[in-house]
Design brief:
Blueprint (H helix, E strand, L loop, with lengths): L16 H31 L2 H11 L2 H28 L6 H28 L6
Length: 130
């Protein structure tokens, strides 16, 4: 049986910014889905009464979960900014290669800045995470 040609390995190609931004957008959407489960747990404990809420608050206030909340804030910020980018693309604007590359950089920078603002608002300005 003749050997079939093999596809080139993924690392043969140069960095593809559109591929990277798309994958990160999908992962942040997945992360937000996990965060929705945590939110549902918190809401169910709130509806369950004082004892259930106190138990959930003890669990959700653990230090390791603050890293998870920070990751959720980044996922929210990235998904929001990337979604706005896609809405702009849906109008037929900024689809050229150079414009797309610039918008990918803008998405990354705005996501980090928005995450920093949200982290400050939640953790450092007197706001409290559960």
């Amino acid at each position: 049986m003749p050997e079939r040609p093999l596809s080139p390995h993924l690392f043969v190609y140069r960095f593809k910014y559109t591929l990277a931004t798309s994958i990160v957008n999908r992962f942040t959407g997945l992360g937000l889905s996990v965060g929705l489960l945590v939110l549902a747990y918190w809401l169910m404990s709130l509806a369950g009464g004082t004892r259930e809420y106190a138990r959930a608050r003890a669990v959700l206030s653990m230090g390791i979960l603050k890293v998870f909340y920070a990751a959720l804030l980044f996922a929210f910020a990235y998904h929001l900014v990337a979604g706005i980018r896609h809405l702009i693309w849906d109008t037929g604007r900024y689809l050229e290669r150079d414009q797309s590359r610039k918008s990918a950089a803008i998405v990354a920078v705005l996501s980090v800045l928005l995450t920093a603002v949200l982290l400050y608002a939640v953790f450092f300005s007197g706001g409290r995470a559960p």
